[in-house]
Amino acid sequence: MRFLRQLLLMFVVPIWFGATNAAVGQVLTVDIERVFSQADSWHTVLEQLAAESENLREENAQIDQQLSTEEQELTELRATLDLTEFRRIADDFDRRVTEIRTAQAAKVQRLARQREGLRQSFYTDIIRPVLGELAQDRGVDVILDRRSVLLVVQDSDITDVLIAEINRRASIEELDAIDPQNSPEDAPTVSTTDE
What we know:
With 195 residues, the protein is mainly alpha-helical. It contains 6 helices and 2 strands, in the order H-E-H-H-H-E-H-H. The longest helix has 56 residues, at 83-138.
């Protein structure tokens, strides 16, 4: 039995490891979050989204001011109206405030979904094709997100190469594909961090 185990160690195990390595081939890594943070074309998208967010913030501020003024006017009317009439007007005001708040909250949520959808589109339409070409050019079988790898040899990381290539290819035509105005409201989302 001991002799059989030695044979297995000498012949079978090395063959298995060799087959495993042949199947995996070369593996490269990329820091996707750094790609997003340093890709010029993604910054252009973020600037467009920031402008929309600022417009929405100003709109909300104006609405808050208007509602505050109406509330003050309603308070002053209290002394000139009978209780039944005042309650009717106050209830109508409260209902309008609730509807307005709900509508504005929906706009904020829609903008957040739009950002996530655009991030997914940027990866699919801009990053992934370049990754595919780099993998093909280098004869690579696998490219992993660096965050999910325990140990990385610096030479295996192609983040800088990927960023440089994306920036080189950046053009109006590419950005049209991820224009915030064209992004569906129900676009799929991915896990992100703010860039």
